[in-house]
Amino acid sequence: MGITFLAAGTSIPDAMASTLVAMDGLGDMAISNIIGSNIFEIYICLGGLWFIRSITDDLDPVDIYSSGLTFTSMMLFGTVVFAFGTIHLNGWKLDKKMGVICTLCYAVVISFAIMYELNVFADVNPPPCKY
Description:
Belongs to the Ca(2+):cation antiporter (CaCA) (TC 2.A.19) family. SLC24A subfamily. The chain crosses the membrane at residues 30-52, 64-86, 98-116. With 131 residues, the protein is mainly alpha-helical. It has 2 domains: 1-63; 64-124, no CATH class. The protein has 4 helices and no strands. The protein has helices spanning 2-23, 27-56, 66-89, 96-117. Helix 1 runs antiparallel to helix 2 (27-56). The protein is globular, with a radius of gyration of 18 Å. The protein starts with a helix and ends in a 14-residue tail after the last helix.
């Protein structure tokens, strides 16, 4: 729960900054902020935490269930390609139609990621701990 609030707390200022620069007519700056902040959060923040965990635990490897991570990473890459493709097809303009398309794309990606993590498509996560 705390991680969710932390993620919202770091994403809301980025969203507001992107909205303000898009309203000023600088859509390319808004898109680069959106993509850049997500790349930073994934590679630096997540990778940094895994690195700290591995050096503080006698250099033991960090166990992760990679099938869910692989699916989610591929979905994120697909959304970046989709975003660039739809913006290109829209004449490099951000309008209400692009806002609706991006919102629907986000809803689809989140829905599939949740279903995948809940073992709807395949058995990727072990059963929860009984304690």
